[in-house]
Amino acid sequence: MTAVSLVVIDGAHVGLGFPSSAVDRIVPAASWPDAVPDLFETVGIAPSADRKGEVRVLVLRAPVGGVAVERPLATSGHVRVRTVAAAEIHVLPREVPAPLLGGVVFPSKNEPALLLLSVEALLS
Amino acid sequence: MQLGQVWMALRANHVQEILGALAWVAIPGAPAHLPGVLPWRGRAVAVLDLGGATGLVQKPLGQTRARTVIAQARGSTVAIPVDAVQEVQLVDEAAVRPSHMTRQRHSLTEVEVKGVPMPLLDLEEIMKSLGEAAA
Fold first, then answer.
1. What whole-number distance in Å separates Cα of residue B33 and Cα of residue B21?
2. Which of A78, A96, B18, B41 is deepest in the core (most CB within 10 A)?
3. Would you place residue A8 in the very low, low, confident or very high pLDDT band (cuts 50, 70, 90)?
4. What distance separates the 2 farthest-apart alpha carbons in chain A?
């Protein structure tokens, strides 16, 4: 069974996940960086928690058109690494288009639902 | 099937399965009446907010209803959370009549089940209109 390593940011009701390979670095921030977009808001979810948690800036980095592109996103959600089986990642049906999402992992007993972000869409 | 106080009929050939309450995952930016997905037979299927699509329920779809109807139309599979589902009823095609006693968006006909007239939902038309709205 193929396993996929994800960087997961826990929100109030749902987690957001990136392939670990796309997260170049995670930088702690002393306060909320106004110049950096809120990760959850970028995806269309209410801003992460109430911005009272530990603030971090995730820097995504991946090649787009042969050129390495970076995008910082701020969050105060809990950041962790989670490994899921590739079979757990479900493609969204065409009736529910979400260009920034690459799939969904349904909740289990121990884990909330997880929305897998499309790094390609976020960087382009 | 029942939504709030209203009973509606759906042609049985649309129905794949009737399940209990199922939690679904909201998808940010999804169409208003297809607000999320749930797992069914190993894949993600769209959740149809029937209350919103028919105008019966104005508030957003809650996370759970007692029953979930899995239905297919226009090549799409959708999960429809509803409050109750009756058993399959055999109705003579001649008894399907133009809407008179009932008036319901996405329904031009009605049938009488156990003495109760109810709108016969046109799921094909619902999916068509949702597809056009999303385009």
1. 18
2. A96
3. very high
4. 42
A115: chain B residues, CB-CB within 8 Å: 25, 27-28
Q: Give CA–CA dist B26/B28, Å, rounded.
A: 6
pLDDT tens column, B116-127: 888 999 999 999
- Per DSSP, what are the bridge partners of residue A7? A18, A81
- Taking one residue from A and the other from B, the number of pairs with CB-CB distance under 8 angstroms is 64
d(Cα A105, Cα B25) in Å, to the nearest integer?
9
Q: What is the pTM of this model?
A: 0.89
* B94-105: pLDDT as tens digits: 888 888 877 778
3-state secondary structure of A42: helix
A95 vs B contacts (CB less than 8 Å): 31, 34, 46, 76, 78, 130-131, 134
Residue B80: alpha-carbon gap to chain centroid: 5
Mutation target to probe the A interface, by most A beta carbons within 10 A, among B22, B34, B37 is B37
Of all residues in chain A, the one with the smallest CA distance to B31 is A96
Give the β-pairing of B36-40 and B43-47.
antiparallel
- Strand-by-strand arrangement of the A56-64 sheet: A23-28, A56-64, A67-75
**Which of the four pLDDT bands, split at 50, 70 and 90, describes residue B61?**
confident
Mean pLDDT for B68-97 is 92
The strand pairing partners of A56, in sequence order, are A28, A75
ipTM of this predicted structure: 0.89
- CB–CB of B76 and A95 under 8 A? yes
A89/B9 Cα distance (integer angstroms) = 35
